[in-house]
C-alpha cells in the first residue's frame, strides 16, 4: 500500500512540476509581450509629441514669415496679406490652421482715425470691439481666409481679453512666438464648439532697436497670429502618425491636468487611468506654455497574448501526457503485482474452500442431518443421501421436485410448512424453522426439524436459491410428551393433576362469563382406603386407585375433567350444566349419585403373598362427595373450599353420600 502511494505521489509530483513550469514560462512570455507592447507604445507617443512640436514649429515659421513681410515693406495692405496666405495654402503648409492674421496695436488717440481708415477701405460698418475706454487697443485687421467664420473676429480687440493679452505681452517682451492659454475662439458659431488657442509673433517698427525689453515695448506695432481649433489642429497631426497597429487615445491639458484645462481628447468617452498597462504622461514646453500630454492605449486591442497561451496549453498537454504515461506504466506494474497476488489468493482460497467443504460435509453427515438445496425458479431440489436415509429411501430413490417431499408431510402439518417455504421464496422472510411429521418408507410418521435460509438473489432482489437441513427429532418429541405428561397428569391414574385442573377451571370461567351458564365442582374422598393400604400395602392401594379413576371417567362426559389431588382425594369439574340453576343442581346431583353408586361396588384386588402365591381380594370402598354449583364471575378458591366443606359434611354424617351446597356466586 505504501509503495502504491509513493508511486502515485511521484506521478503527481511530475505533473505538478510540469504545470508550474508551464505557468512560469507562459507568464514570462506574457511579460515579454507586454514589455514589447509598452516599448512600441512609448515609441508612438514620442512620435506624436514630435509631430506636434514639428507642426507648431511650422506654424511659428508661417507667422515669422508674416512678420518678415512687414519688415520688408513700408506698408502692407490687405491684398499683399491675402496673396501671402494664398501662396501658403497653395503649398499645403497651412493644414489645420483656422486662419492667419494680423492685429494692429492702437493708441487711444489714434482709435478714431484708425476706424475711418478701415471704413474707407470698403468696410463702412467697421469698429473696434468690444467698445469702451481702454488704455491701449488692438484690432484684427487682416485674417485670411476671410470667410464668414473668420469675419466674426474682424475688428476684435484681443488685447482686451486677459488670456490673449497675457500671450500678446509675452510675445512682445520676448520677441518670440508665444501660445495663449485655453480660450473659446470668436470663430465658434455654436456648432461643434472646440477649445482653442492662439499663437502670436510680435511685429516691431522698422529701423527701431529691439535689444532690450523697454526697446521692444516701445517698438511694438502689432502681431501676426493664428487661431487654432484644437480638435482640427491635433486630428491632422495624429492622422499623420502611423497608428494602424497601435491605436492611442491622447488628452492634451494646458498646464495642470484638470477638466477646465482640457484642450483636446481624442476619445472623450474613455477616461485615462494611470494604472493601465499602456499609459504615458509627457510634459511639452512649447512657445511659452506647458502642455501635459496623456497617452493611453487599449491593451486588449494592442497586445496579443496568443503565444503565451500556446506555451501554457502546450505545457499542460505535455505535462498531462507525461503524467498519464507514468500512471499507465505504474498501473501496468501494479496490475502484474495484483495478478500474482490474486492468483496466489485464489489458490489459497481454493484450498480453504476444499477444507471448508470437507468440514461442512463432515459436520452435516456426522450430525445425521439431511441437506436439501432448492432451485426456486424450477421448484426442483437436491436431496443429500442423509436426507433420503432419514425417510428410509436409498440413493436417488426420491424424485427431485418439491412435491416429492411435501406429499409425504402429515396432513396436519403440510399447510404450515408450505406457508414458510413460500414466504422465503417470495422474499417476505430470509429464513425459517419448522417442525413437522413425515411419512417414511416404513409407513410410520417421524418428527422432523427443518431449517432453511435464502442464499442467492437475482439483480432485482428475487430469491433464486434456498438451502436447508432436515433433522430427526422424534425422540425429542417423545421426551417432550413425557415431560408434558408428568407436568399435567397424575402418573398413577393418568388423570389430570392439580395444575391442569386449575388451567381447565380458568378456561371454563371465561366460557361461563360469556354464556352465563352454570358449572359444578365435585370433591370426594374414599372411605376405608387407608385400611387397605395398611393391611395389604401400597400395591393394593394403587390397584384400587386406578380402578376408582376408571369408574369415575366412565361416569362423566367427555367435556368434563377428572383430577386426582393426591392420596385418595379426587376432583371432578362439570363444564356446562345449562342456564337454569335448578336444572344445573339436578344434573350435578345425578352425576354425583351415579359415581357414588359405581364407587361403592366391590373391587377385585390381586395380591401376591411372600411365597409368591397369588389370590384375589374383594374389597368394599365407598366415597363421601361434596358438590358446589357456580356461575361466573366467581372466586376459584371459594368454589373449591365450598365443595370441600360439603365433602367433609358427608364424611361426618357416615360417608357414602352426596352433599350439595347452594349455588356459589360473587
UniProtKB/TrEMBL annotation:
Q: Would you kindly state one Gene Ontology biological process term found in this protein's UniProt entry?
A: signal transduction
Supply the name of the protein. Uncharacterized protein
Please give the InterPro entries that the UniProt record associates with this protein.
CHASE_dom, CHASE_sf, DGC-Regulatory_Protein, GGDEF_dom, Nucleotide_cyclase, PAS, PAS-assoc_C, PAS-like_dom_sf
Q: Which GO terms describe its cellular component?
A: membrane
Pfam families hit by this protein: CHASE, GGDEF, PAS_3
Q: Where found? A: Membrane
UniProt entry keywords in alphabetical sequence: Membrane, Transmembrane, Transmembrane helix
Q: Has the keyword Transmembrane helix been applied to this entry?
A: yes
Q: Which domain of life is it from?
A: Bacteria
Concerning Gene3D superfamilies, the annotation shows: 3.30.70.270, CHASE domain, PAS domain
Q: What is the lineage of its organism?
A: Bacteria, Pseudomonadati, Pseudomonadota, Betaproteobacteria, Rhodocyclales
The species this protein was found in:
Fluviibacter phosphoraccumulans
Q: Which SMART domains match?
A: CHASE, GGDEF, PAS
